[in-house]
Amino acid sequence: MAGDTPLRFSEYRGFIELLNEDGYVLDFSNREFSEFTREFTGMDLLKKYRLSKGKSLEAYLKHAPRSQSFALLKALMDEWERTRRALVDDEVIEQADSCYRQLHTLKVSLTDGGIGERLRSRGFTSQYLDEQRVLLWEKAPTHPTASIGIAKELIESCCKTILEHHDVSYSITDGLNKLVDKTQQALSINPRDVDTAAPAAKVIRGLLGNLASVARYLAELRNSHGIGHGKSVSYRGLSERHARLAAGAALTLVEYLWATHLETRPGHPTSETEPDAMCASDPLIPPRSGW
To answer: Alpha-carbon distance 191 to 179, whole Å?
Structure first.
């Protein structure tokens, strides 16, 4: 199971760079670190590894199940937020924000049933989309915030796959909205490219534009309700209905982009038996190139 495997070095390296300060971890004394780690891991890491606080933390992350490592790292980042954010410069804050993003990635990996790992190994396919569709509806009641994160990453993965197929470059700094815009251009369904002489051109442009705006608003929703940064006492999290709204909107966008990609790629047979194909009678598949 995904939650039982240890973290890879690349997954916890950023936390070590932020939290391990020449063997010290934040402002913990030895006694405080022992009590803290016992609370979140069930063991005294100093006693177990007989190393410095920083080295003990690294040794634990190297071998512990990722679900337990996530719990400890989340607690340590909460402590960092409480004691350090107001005291450090922008460079360190950027480093910490990168750790928060990694925490989100880890949280999703613990709740996606291994689907994310299959994406990394096999790429974005119609089967992967089907798995994500089921996962989004399953997670909405119990993990609404994580569900919204999954929806955002589904759009991102779909767009990057299509762009790579069309040999369109993108940058790691491209936001979700820009990725969708580039994908629409690659598929010739960008609202700006709709022929003004086409029947109902204004309506078509409006539909495509509103569909693209899903990405921007979903990214804003995800950023404002992420697991990073401290929350005020009055903070209210997202509910199941918010997660279902985000999931439905994201799936509508992704299914349209993916169906258009499958329909318009050269030499693609629109057969139900083709491994990566959606059913040719699917109403989301356009009858011709373009929108």
So the answer is: 15
